[in-house]
Amino acid sequence: MKSAILDFFRAFREEEQAWIQSLQTPTNTDFHTPSSTLQDCSLHYGELAFVLAGLKPCLLIQLPTPELTTAFYEGVIVPRLLTHPAYAQLSAPSDLGLSCKRITGRVRSPEMSLQGYVLLWSRRTVLSHPQADRIQRGIDRVCPQETTLHSGDQTGSENVGDNQEDEDEISEEDLAVMLDIPGRLPKTHAEMLQMIEVSYWHQVSSSNTTGSAQATEPTLLTAFAAQPDQIPEIHAHFRRYRTTLLQVLELPIQLHIQSMADMAK
Question: What are the DSSP calls for the chain, one per residue?
Fold first, then answer.
């Protein structure tokens, strides 16, 4: 299984980076999103690694706009990744039980609409989670056509917006459990003032002309808001991620915590 995990992780990372680079070519006029926005906000290979390593149950793929997410789903995920031999193995119920589906229903969190984004999850990690029932209810709410018995390729061609049912809502707390986020959004003005931003980064090393290792610019893997009282939990969460990712994918990560007040200065 580890070989398939490595193969699928590398394929996803390469395809994602190639697709984003293609958007930045002068001849590409389909989308007008700044390159910096794409690079900083749209790389999902790190969060995919979290799912493949059994650390988080679900991954929400969300690019800066629903149109970009749809283009990535239809142009890369479905034809290139869901057909990859490693995905075929990892989607088996006896393996990770990976599933991937675009969110076509009118569902939102308190902060944003989820319609048009893509949900990928591991059935094995969901079932082994202490809050498995809560996570499965969240998956069923976001992707109501799915049940606990289904896994594998979910490549339906439903058009976003076809469903005319009333908009459903999933709580931030449920999403945080599904996505394994050890933080919370501020609920009061006082919490807003003391909010912190937590981010995990991938430090890539490359060889220079002398053959010695040379650090390159780190890549943002994930970021979330939290409160100062959650810092001990965040450190424990990061240590668990760092250890597991090195063991499973040889992926080194770094932790950065910054006060939002300091960022505003």
Answer: -HHHHHHHHHHHHHHHHHHHHHHTSTT--S----HHHHHHH---HHHHHHHHTTS-SEEEE--SSHHHHHHHIIIIIIIIITTSHHHHHHTSTTTT-EEEEE--S-EE-SS-B-TT-EEEEEHHHHHHSTTHHHHHHHHHHHSTT--TT--EE----PPTT---SPPEE--HHHHHHHHT-------SHHHHHH-EEEEEEE--EEE-TTS-EEE---EEEEEEEE-GGGHHHHHHHHHHHHHHHHHHH---EEEEEEEHHHHT-
> pLDDT by residue (tens digit) across 77-103?
999 999 999 999 999 999 999 999 999
Statement: the pTM of the whole predicted model exceeds 0.70: yes
* Domain locations in the chain as residue ranges: 2-179, 189-263
